[in-house]
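EI: anyone free to look at a 360-residue chain?
SC: sure, send it
EI:
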Amino acid sequence: MDKISVLVVDDSALIRKLLTDIINSQPDMEVIGAAPDPVAAREMIRTLNPDVLTLDIEMPKMDGLEFLEKLMRLRPMPVVMVSTLTEQGSEATLRALELGAVDFVAKPKMDIRHGLEAYADEIANKIRVARAARIRRPDTVASNRSRDASESLPAVFKRHGMSTEKLIIVGASTGGTEAIKDFMIDLPPDCPGILIAQHMPETFTRTFAERLDRLCKIQVAEAQGGERVLPGHAYIAPGHSHLLLKKSGANYVTELSQADPVNRHRPSVDVLFRSAAQYAGKNAVGVILTGMGKDGAAGMLAMRQAGAYNLAQDEASCVVFGMPREAIAVGAVDEVVPLKDMAKRVLTALSGMGKQAIRV
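SC: here you go
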């Protein structure tokens, strides 16, 4: 099998060297070029035709985001961002994912050499995933779709007398930041409470929650633990902890745990889904979105066995059809849905109509 060819783009000679060494140490990939800025990268892309690009954000001659926007419009290809672990870096990285980057590597602020070397396996795995990923062009119609949905979905929601005891439980990984946004932007402000586990470093989850809060009709925040789960609110698992659903009297509440990673992840989708199975049962609708691996499959099966109704994102709209495929394979999913229809199908399921759907 041909090796994955990688072009490294970073203004730091040290980081170019470190990434090159990490990538070339893998048996199935090789660096075919290293560029100090987007202008040089542009020429290398034309002549070398790499399979995957690693891209820094802050660079001379052209900002990495500006370059990414042009690249995804003119010559879409798999891109893994290399971003600093700062609040500003988090915002820029989320913007890069919005523009079509497949994933990102968190570049440490201190001791860059040992920091990147510690992430060697993660970097290599993300390059492999990027090579196989479905490249998503930036969504230019989301705002219009959101306005249309704001007129129609609340009517569906209210017409069928939805209970405020209902909950929406969401899990995602690679490609999930944009999938979650596209799903939640179509939800009405009085929808049931939502709990979300997205695989993401802790420096990024608060920025992600704040971004969603600005875009969505519902209120979105990073979970603090101990909050009552309220309608019209979404709670994002912080990157340092598992998020669990619990009961306190008649109320649903959040709980955070720093127990060991599950499926190599903390937060883990399985942990969240299993807690929903235990405490919400038939009052929950589970949603599993794009992502690599099998995290969430076993927990979603537990949810279904407890009476929940579960939906998976379809392959055509996934960046990586890993987690949804695994959930479908174990029999955890009631319905497979394109991302553009997910909000409407979830609300229909919550209204009691979803049980009429054909099971997969």
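EI: DSSP finds 13 helices and 14 strands in the chain.
SC: 👍
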